From TrEMBL:
Keywords noted in UniProt: Glycosyltransferase, Transferase
Catalytic activity: guanosine + phosphate = alpha-D-ribose 1-phosphate + guanine; adenosine + phosphate = alpha-D-ribose 1-phosphate + adenine; a purine D-ribonucleoside + phosphate = a purine nucleobase + alpha-D-ribose 1-phosphate; inosine + phosphate = alpha-D-ribose 1-phosphate + hypoxanthine
Transmembrane domains' residue ranges: none
EC code: 2.4.2.1, 2.4.2.2
InterPro entries hit by this protein: Ppnp, RmlC-like_jellyroll, RmlC_Cupin_sf
Gene source species: Serpentinicella alkaliphila
Similarity-based family: Belongs to the nucleoside phosphorylase PpnP family.
Name of the protein in its database record: Pyrimidine/purine nucleoside phosphorylase
Pfam family, one: Ppnp
HAMAP family linked to this entry: Nucleos_phosphorylase_PpnP
Keyword Transferase attached: yes
Gene Ontology CC: cytosol
């Protein structure tokens, strides 16, 4: 999906890791939520409450998912899924544009 119609954008940014990761929250009429953001190169660990689907729009990173010993290379156009109530690690190799969808149980 190239654009989202009939949504509410939360004005305040989500800022993590001293500004190296930022996003904006988008709310849909049906209650769905996504964030659109940018990650600067670096190493990060995130925690989830809900299941997440991370779609990489531009950039290059490696992800280490829960219960997985290896790293997975992710490029623009790829996506990966993170279970709820878990942690995952990222090594962002270049500026990365992403869309994170939160999946309700």
């Amino acid at each position: 999906m190239e654009k989202f119609n009939d949504v509410t954008v939360v004005k305040k940014a989500n800022i993590y890791f001293d500004g190296k990761v930022t996003s904006r929250t988008i709310l849909f009429e049906n209650g769905d939520k996504i964030t659109l953001g940018i990650m600067m190169p670096g190493n990060y660990e995130f925690g989830t409450e809900e299941k997440e689907i991370m779609e990489i729009l531009a950039g290059n990173l490696d992800v280490k998912l829960p219960n997985n010993d290896g790293w997975i290379s992710i490029l623009a156009g790829d996506s990966f899924e993170v279970p709820s109530n878990s942690k995952f690690q990222l090594v962002v190799k270049e500026i990365t544009d992403y869309c994170c969808s939160y999946i309700k149980k």
